[in-house]
Amino acid sequence: MMLTIVGAVLLAVGLYAAWRLAPQRPDVPAEGWFPDPASTAARRRLWDGQAWTAHVADGGEPANRGHHFRGRSRGSWMGILGAAVVVLVAGVAAYRATENVHVMAVTSFLAMTLVCWAFYGFVERQLALRDVVGLGQVAAVAVATAGATFLVAMNLNNLTGSIGGISLATTLVGLTEESTKLLVPIVLFLLGTYRNPRAGVGIGLAAGFGFAIAETTLYAYQTAAASGPSFCGAETPAVTTGMVVSAQVARIFGVSPFHWLFTGIAVAIAWRAWHLYGRKGTPAALGGILLVMVVHSLNDTSATLGCGEPVVQSLLALARYALVIGMYLVFKAWARKHTPPQLIGAVSTGWTPKHLGEQKVSPDGSPATGAPAREPADD
């Protein structure tokens, strides 16, 4: 009951803060000719107001094609990650000395928060997201999603019953947990805030951060109190401090990142599809969300499906990794076309538009290869 009340308060406060902190939509250049981001040559490419086209024309200055990412040049995220490791080491030492599970829970909360902060610093550096989703907005969305986690997901994950020998909670975990993480982004979208196609990456990651922090903190208590059969039916051995520490470290650095990757990709796809294409983008948006739910469920049910079958577990693991990587690569190829002219040079080279095609327009504006006649404007 207490978690439900805390969840409701966090959800309300976080949503209000995220709504109030929403930035004004950054100005995106109207249709025009700009230095070609896909080439090192001195030529221009047509930006149609939303994406780069295949139409190019000679002249102008070469584009500043972005920076090679170097962590030390703006390496605050590396320092934050180092702080997470220090907190974790100190907290584990204190937990081993006291065997007080509250110490491990607080340590998990602080370390997970710092890891999320570091990861967002890394992503923000790559994608130049600060103008659409800053750290304050990320924190607000994370708080709201943590509240939704206490309010919704933890109750749904206590469902009883089974399907095909797999517990109902495990079977539906992708649906329940991803729906919980999508709650805040969808509300913000309906409120009309963060009206920028690029904002979906930050909003999605922030929602994943909130869920990961809440779940990791609660798991410190659940792992310490674990008893009964494991996933594969074997009796759980007596829990030791070493087992709790190992489980929490694995969750912080190995399991929880999937939460923000799943949600980050799903929201990024949906946000971009809805903002760029309106209702026509709904199939792509829902397809991305449903695929992430399937991958998430596969991630959890594979622990049961592969009991005693290491080959099966390996194949299931490869399948989910392949799906996540595939979705990321497809999204990246799509998103690069929409990097606006003013951010070319601010994003990393990995997110600079590439493979845009070429359809030359002659200097007098007539199409050289059947392209619509457009007069290149002076820079």
UniProtKB/TrEMBL annotation:
<dbReference type="InterPro" id="IPR026898">
    <property type="entry name" value="PrsW"/>
</dbReference>
<feature type="transmembrane region" description="Helical">
    <location>
        <begin position="311"/>
        <end position="331"/>
    </location>
</feature>
<feature type="transmembrane region" description="Helical">
    <location>
        <begin position="281"/>
        <end position="299"/>
    </location>
</feature>
<feature type="transmembrane region" description="Helical">
    <location>
        <begin position="101"/>
        <end position="120"/>
    </location>
</feature>
<keyword id="KW-0812">Transmembrane</keyword>
<feature type="transmembrane region" description="Helical">
    <location>
        <begin position="252"/>
        <end position="274"/>
    </location>
</feature>
<dbReference type="Pfam" id="PF13367">
    <property type="entry name" value="PrsW-protease"/>
</dbReference>
<protein>
    <submittedName>
        <fullName>PrsW family intramembrane metalloprotease</fullName>
    </submittedName>
</protein>
<keyword id="KW-0645">Protease</keyword>
<keyword id="KW-0472">Membrane</keyword>
<dbReference type="Pfam" id="PF10708">
    <property type="entry name" value="DUF2510"/>
</dbReference>
<dbReference type="GO" id="GO:0008237">
    <property type="term" value="F:metallopeptidase activity"/>
</dbReference>
<keyword id="KW-0482">Metalloprotease</keyword>
<feature type="transmembrane region" description="Helical">
    <location>
        <begin position="132"/>
        <end position="153"/>
    </location>
</feature>
<feature type="region of interest" description="Disordered">
    <location>
        <begin position="355"/>
        <end position="379"/>
    </location>
</feature>
<feature type="transmembrane region" description="Helical">
    <location>
        <begin position="75"/>
        <end position="94"/>
    </location>
</feature>
<feature type="transmembrane region" description="Helical">
    <location>
        <begin position="199"/>
        <end position="221"/>
    </location>
</feature>
<feature type="domain" description="DUF2510">
    <location>
        <begin position="32"/>
        <end position="63"/>
    </location>
</feature>
<dbReference type="InterPro" id="IPR018929">
    <property type="entry name" value="DUF2510"/>
</dbReference>
<keyword id="KW-0378">Hydrolase</keyword>
<keyword id="KW-1133">Transmembrane helix</keyword>
